[in-house]
Specification:
- The complex is a heterodimer of chains A (330) and B (951).
- Chain A contains one helix and 29 strands.
- Chain A is mainly beta.
- Chain B is an alpha+beta fold.
- Among the domains of chain B are: 109 residues, Orthogonal Bundle (Transferase(Phosphotransferase), domain 1), CATH 1.10.510; 264 residues, Orthogonal Bundle (Transferase(Phosphotransferase), domain 1), CATH 1.10.510; 282 residues, no CATH class.
- Chain B has 48 helices and 17 strands.
- In chain B, the strands form five sheets. In chain B, strands 2-3-4-5-7-6 form a six-stranded antiparallel β-sheet. A three-stranded antiparallel β-sheet of chain B has the order 8-10-11.
- In chain B, α10 packs antiparallel against α18, α17 packs antiparallel against α18 and α32 packs across α36.
- Chain B is globular and about 95 Å long.
- Classes of the chains: A mainly beta (330), B alpha+beta (951).
- The interface between A and B is large, with 97 and 72 residues.
- Chain A: Keywords: Acetylation, Repeat, WD repeat.
- Chain B: GO terms for molecular function: ATP binding; protein serine/threonine kinase activity.
- Chain B: Belongs to the protein kinase superfamily. CMGC Ser/Thr protein kinase family. MNB/DYRK subfamily.
């Protein structure tokens, strides 16, 4: 709506913009001021840049010495839940990187490869670091599997053929419970204590509509959100009522690209889409028949590809569009 | 402590959380649009739907490029990047999943090894069915839930084991269901499962059905084995009756009716609709070959006793099902046949009528004779109301069989039917007036059940009669129901002139079934020299290639389909294959080895059935069901003795042939009549083949059936000669079975020729397809083959393989007819599941009074359905009234031909197999209580084994 006025606010006290030399997709907040950005370059060599965000000074300062090359565009970046010195990336493989302030350099710690062949690779579409048990990372792959890694021992704890098609995203709920979404159109919950069963809590209306992203509400584990490919809707699920979404957030005007629950509030979720908008929603206890409207919105100059909500600074949401990252105060 | 603390904390943090508000610094508040702005919605909505029109999106969003298109993206990044879906870990649905047979496609059980996303390819139609899950498995094969991308819907695909026996048996199901669907129920109103398609993939016959939901056993189980409410029982009863009425009209006996084979539909638009599934054991009423049929709890007394049976056995099963729906437990949970009979007698307070006991072949297992033989003969005993038979006590049984009979647990302690129903606990807290109402309905139910679980098959109500019962119609029950007379079919038959042409006798002979003593007697008169008692005729005659067409079949003997390519094709695809001028070849091998009565078989040795063709000198090993009449020259009877009893035991006569020296092995007297039909018809061959069908299949056929078959063969005169009105009377319901054929009779003779031609093809195919009994018996190849001749086995397998290959070509042709089936079918509705929560609602409903149904069901998906219950009743009286008319119209030649085809297959197998008939084990599993075919897991607890560990 007030696109121009908002753009004029760039660099104001409410937002900070960082312009990267290349398009950005991957993006991660650490438990400190550190932020990581992953490039999307159509080349083998991609980049992961490390920046520091200072909310007081509203500055974003890059650390070129900590930045590093990455094979292929990373599909996801994530810092260790408590340590800003450990960064994990997914792409062709899961990699763990150590950011050493002392030496001002980043070292590849380990590469997790469960493949039996060297010629072929099943890329990882996403992963999630277990916030309750940071020794565990769960990855999702297009080979239909989910893999739970034991980081200390660099071993596969479990690999499950989780879906009937490619798995596109994965999220931990509890220490031993995770959920995943897939090209098969389903959201499934897995419990490592009972590996023989999974629970389908949602299936997309058309079985072949892939679900691309999944976000589990850490403040209220009953709720999770997912997005369908080429859909302007955010589907809100209540795991207590499987197969029936509790809400469809459908005010975006183009396909939704990213979703993030508020790290500190149980009923707020943000979403970003190809309509260049980032929306913040509050889930009402009772949905009105006319649907749910977002409580606030932000319009970016172009399609927003990524959105993260900082756990360290819950008043800040980061979005990525084109080659820019923007931190927005909410 | 912890929990309390957390409980206290939670609200606080929740308050905090919900108290959070974005301060709207970078974000602009989004004010819900007023009514004016709502008007603008269309624009924005259009934009949302079609973002491309608004902004130029050159490529997919990055999120899609790193998920859905990640391989392409990475290949752009690095042309060397390689990913192969084939390397993905497979989630096996089939167990064991090690491929050891059929080039690694099959596991040790001859099951196709299925993985998720395995594609079943119907090559001819260029259709793909993508396997998504396993719904069930059994000895017949597996049932998979598949995605049909053409129709965007799920279907249930039965993937038959790569073994001839199962293949053949499954073809029976295909043929019967296709006929039922297309001819009798084109509008899908009779609660019979729809068949959509079938094809061969990797040597496995695959049959596509509509996908259905939970079966009634599971429904009862979800209700914790408490009975369903009377309203539901009534609703289901109506629908099942509607299906049974259709079966009766078509002259088909389901033979395995039980709660597991009645499934809820998935359709949201058809409320609480159920459908009858699993026609893998079904047979034509006039071809009741197998004596070991029906699942035990639902087995009718006549089947148990080894008496001839009709569609009335399904009505018995139906009665058992109705009772079980109400009680939540089976009415006759017999742990053994003895126990079963004991329970029937106890609960029903009576026993099978003397005329049944007199002729049933197992009577002596369960009864002792306490009257004089004279009495039996004169039926005096029945006149004075006292039976000359008395059921054995446990001790007597033990003494006779020298083993204790298994006796199951008593659920309803020594109560009769009336007491069981009356004393069944009412739903708790039921208002008094509702109890009064329900007690009235219970009285109607008792009366209803009494007409269904009636020992005397002749007195047992027909589907039509039962559907008029107050319990079904909902009319007040005032006095015991006396059913309207069943639609008379007699006139049709009576019009047929009886011609006692000696040649006609062979029909009877051919059709004689040890299984049907009563009929045999009746038919005796026309084939005087047929030694009926001593040589169970059905088993013992064999007819062989009259035309000497036998080619190279000898070596290949053990398996069907081994007679050269053309015949092979027929063997496999016969049910509908229209083409086939190879009649000579095929017709030449008609081997009648199948004995309808497995038990007797044991004594008489099926092996005796070897047929020799005088003309060719070849004997035809395979086509078991073929009728000797096929090759019988008019009025000349030739006796051929073949087969050595005892040699092959319960195996098939065909086995003898497979050894290549049929004569050597044969010993038993096989009698067959040779008659040349050509005199009567312009196309001799066709006639021959044609008639053969009928015969082979009809070990216990009543005279009229045989007659009709003749009619089809375009020799009307024969018909008449064979038809024996007396039989009809004797049999009561017997008339029904023949309706198809009868209608043919009426055809002007002008049509006969064309008719016969048509039938020729079919019959030819059919003839060939008659399998070796070994093919029928699942255990046959497993055990018997091993015991006997190893070479047989290999021979059989190769043959089968070969014919399969050939067959696929033929499928195309055969498919022509099936095509409309699939196309005409209504779209299948995706299966949605009833959750546990719904299950609970079901529980509730169980105890609800009938009039309460709606509320009972409200929460569940089913609730919708149940609202409409009253509308569901499908069987309109008019239908029945017009039955006979319809029959006539059905009598068109092509149809007759179709019928012929399938008749062939079913009979041949079971009879020889006897107690080890495939259906026995195979179908129990699919319909087995724990593991039912198309049921879906409740969603909430929809835990599934659908992923596998890889580590």
């Amino acid at each position: 709506m007030e696109q121009t006025s908002q753009e004029s606010q760039l660099g104001s006290s409410n937002s900070v913009t960082y312009e990267s030399p290349y398009p950005i997709y991957g993006m991660a907040f650490s438990s400190s001021e550190r932020v990581a950005l992953g490039s999307f370059i159509e080349d083998y060599t991609n980049r992961v840049d490390i920046l520091s965000f200072n909310p007081e000074t509203l500055s974003l300062s890059p650390h070129p010495s900590l930045s590093f090359d990455h094979p292929y565009p990373p599909t996801k970046l994530m810092f260790h839940p408590t340590s800003p010195d450990l960064l994990a990336t997914s792409g062709d493989f899961l990699r763990l990187w150590e950011l050493r302030d002392s030496s001002s350099s980043t070292h590849p710690l380990s590469l997790f490869n469960n493949s039996k062949t060297s010629d072929f690779c099943a890329p990882l579409t996403s992963f999630d670091w277990n916030h309750l048990d940071p020794n565990r990372i769960a990855t999702s792959s297009i080979d239909t599997t989910c893999t739970i890694w034991d980081l200390h021992r660099s071993l596969v704890e479990t690999q499950l053929i989780a879906h009937d098609k490619e798995v596109y995203d994965i999220a931990w709920g509890e220490a031993r419970v995770f959920a995943s979404v897939s090209a098969d159109g389903s959201v499934r919950i897995f419990d490592l204590r009972d590996k023989e069963h999974s629970t389908i809590i949602y299936e997309s209306p058309h079985p072949d509509t892939p679900l691309l992203r999944l976000a589990w509400n850490k403040q209220d584990l009953r709720y999770m959100a997912t997005i369908l490919m080429d859909s302007n809707k955010v589907v809100i699920l209540d795991i207590r009522s499987p197969t029936t979404p509790v809400a469809h957030l459908d005010r975006h005007r183009a396909s939704v690209n990213a979703i993030a629950w508020a790290p500190h509030a149980s009923s707020h979720i943000s979403s970003a889409a190809d309509d260049t908008q980032a929306l913040i929603w509050e889930l009402p206890t009772l949905a009105s028949p006319s649907g749910i409207d977002p409580i606030c919105m932000y319009s970016a100059p172009s399609e927003i590809n990524q959105l993260q909500w900082s756990p360290t600074y819950p008043d800040w949401i980061a979005i990525a569009f084109a080659n820019k990252m923007q931190l927005l105060k909410v | 402590m912890d929990g309390v603390a957390r409980a206290e904390e939670q609200p606080r943090s929740r308050d905090l959380a919900s108290g959070w508000r974005p301060r709207g610094s970078a974000f602009a508040p989004c004010i819900p649009k007023g009514p004016d702005e709502q008007e603008e919605q269309p624009n924005s909505a259009a934009a949302a739907e079609n973002p491309q029109t608004l902004r130029v999106v050159v490529r997919k969003p990055l999120v899609a490029r790193l998920t859905k298109e990640i391989v392409e993206t990475y290949q752009i990044c690095n042309p060397q990047f390689k990913y192969s879906e084939d390397l993905n870990p497979k989630r096996f649905l089939t167990s064991p999943s090690v491929g050891v047979l059929n080039d690694g496609y099959d596991n040790v059980n001859s099951d196709l090894i299925l993985t998720v996303n395995f594609v079943l390819n119907h090559l001819e139609k260029n259709k793909r069915y993508i396997v998504k899950d396993l719904l069930g498995h059994g000895t017949f094969g597996q049932v998979a839930k598949c995605w049909d991308s053409d129709t965007n819907s799920f279907v249930a695909v039965k993937i038959i084991k790569n073994q001839p026996a199962y293949y053949q048996q499954a073809l029976v199901e295909v043929t019967i269901l296709t006929t039922l669907n297309k001819k009798y129920d084109p509008e899908d109103k009779h609660h019979i499962v729809r068949i959509y398609d079938y094809f061969v993939y990797q040597r496995h016959l695959c049959i596509c059905f509509e996908l259905l939901d939970t079966n009634l056993y599971e429904l009862i189980k979800m209700n914790h084995f408490r009975g369903l409410s009377l309203g539901i029982v009534q609703l289901f009863s109506k629908q099942i009756l509607c299906g049974l009425a259709l079966l009766k009209e078509a002259g088909i006996i389901h033979c395995d009716l039980k709660p597991e084979n009645i499934l809820l539909c998935t359709s949201p638009v058809k409320p609480a609709e159920i459908k009858v599934i699993d026609f893998g054991s079904a047979c034509m009423e006039n071809r009741t070959v197998y004596s070991y049929i029906q699942s035990r709890y639902y087995r009718s007394p006549e089947v148990l006793l080894g008496y001839q049976y009709t569609t009335a056995i399904d009505m018995w099963s139906f009665g058992c099902i109705v009772a079980e729906l109400f009680l939540g437990l089976p009415l006759f949970p017999g742990a053994s046949e003895f126990d079963l009979l004991k329970r029937m007698i106890e609960i029903l307070g009576g026993q099978p009528p003397d005329y049944v006991l007199r002729d049933a072949k197992n009577t002596s297992k369960f009864f002792k004779c306490i009257g004089s033989l004279q009495h039996i003969e004169s039926s005096e005993s029945s006149k004075n109301g006292r039976s000359v038979y008395q059921a054995l006590t446990v001790e007597e049984y033990e003494a006779r069989e020298s083993k204790k009979p298994s006796i199951g647990k008593e659920y309803f302690n020594h109560m009769n039917l009336e007491e069981i129903v009356t004393n069944y606990p009412y739903r708790k807290n039921l208002p008094k007036e509702d109890i009064v109402k329900e007690s009235q309905i219970r009285l109607a139910l008792i009366d209803f059940l009494k007409g269904l679980v009636e020992f005397d098959p002749a007195k047992r109500w027909s589907p039509f009669q039962a559907s008029k019962h107050p319990f079904v119609t909902g009319e007040p029950f005032i006095h015991p129901y006396s059913p309207p007379p069943e639609t008379p079919h007699m006139p049709v038959v009576q019009n047929i002139k009886v011609d006692n042409h000696p040649g006609g006798g062979h029909w009877f002979a051919a059709g004689l079934s040890p299984n049907v003593p009563g009929k045999n007697r009746a038919s005796l008169y026309s084939s005087p020299h047929f030694p009926m008692v001593q040589h169970p005729p059905a088993n013992s005659y064999g007819s062989v290639g009259s035309h000497g067409s036998y080619n190279d079949s000898v070596g290949l003997g053990s398996s069907y389909g081994s007679y050269g390519e053309s015949s092979n094709m027929f063997a496999y695809y016969s049910p509908i294959g229209p083409s086939g001028m190879n009649m000579h070849n095929q017709s030449s091998m008609s081997m009648l080895g199948n004995s309808p009565d497995a038990r007797r078989r044991v004594k008489y040795q099926p092996g005796n059935g070897l047929g020799i063709s005088p003309s060719a000198g070849n004997f035809a090993p395979l086509p078991l069901g073929l009728s000797p009449s096929q090759f019988t020259p008019p009025s000349s009877y030739s006796q051929v003795s073949v087969g050595s009893p005892g040699h092959y035991g319960p195996t098939s006569p065909a086995r003898g042939t497979s050894h290549g020296s049929p004569l050597g092995k044969s010993a038993a007297v096989s009698q067959f009549n040779r008659r040349k039909n050509w005199g009567h018809s312009g196309s001799p061959q066709s006639q021959e083949t044609f008639s053969s069908h009928w015969h082979g299949q009809y070990p216990d056929s009543s005279s009229h059936t045989e007659g009709t078959s003749q009619a089809l063969g375009s020799s009307p005169s024969y018909l008449q000669s064979n038809s024996n009105p007396g039989n009809w009377k004797q049999r009561g319901t017997g008339g029904l079975s023949a309706n198809q054929n009868i209608s043919c009779l009426i055809k002007p003779s002008v049509n006969m020729n064309s008719q016969s031609t048509e039938s020729v093809h079919d019959s030819a195919e059919v003839g060939i397809s008659l399998p070796d009994p070994g093919d029928w018996d699942p255990n046959y190849s497993d055990e018997l083959l091993l015991q006997e001749d190893g070479s047989d086995e290999s021979c059989l397998t190769t043959e089968f393989g070969r014919s399969m290959n050939l067959g696929s070509t033929e499928t195309l042709a055969g498919f022509g007819r099936f095509n409309h089936v699939s196309s005409s079918n209504t779209p299948i509705i995706m299966q949605r599941l009833n959750g546990p929560s719904q299950a609970f609602t079901n529980v509730e409903m169980g105890s609800l009074p009938a009039h309460d149904l709606q509320s009972a069901y409200v929460p569940s998906n089913m609730s919708k359905h149940f609202h409409l219950m009253p509308h569901i009743l499908q069987n309109s009286p008019s239908r029945f009234g017009h039955q006979s008319v319809q029959r006539f119209s059905h009598g068109r030649p092509p149809q007759g031909a179709e019928w012929n085809q399938f008749k062939i297959q079913a009979p041949s197998g079971f009879s020889s197999v006897g107690p080890r008939s495939p259906r026995n084990n195979s179908f129990t599993t699919w319909g087995r209580r724990m593991n039912h075919p198309v049921s879906s897991m409740p969603p909430t607890s929809r835990t599934r084994k659908d992923y596998a560990r890889i580590d």
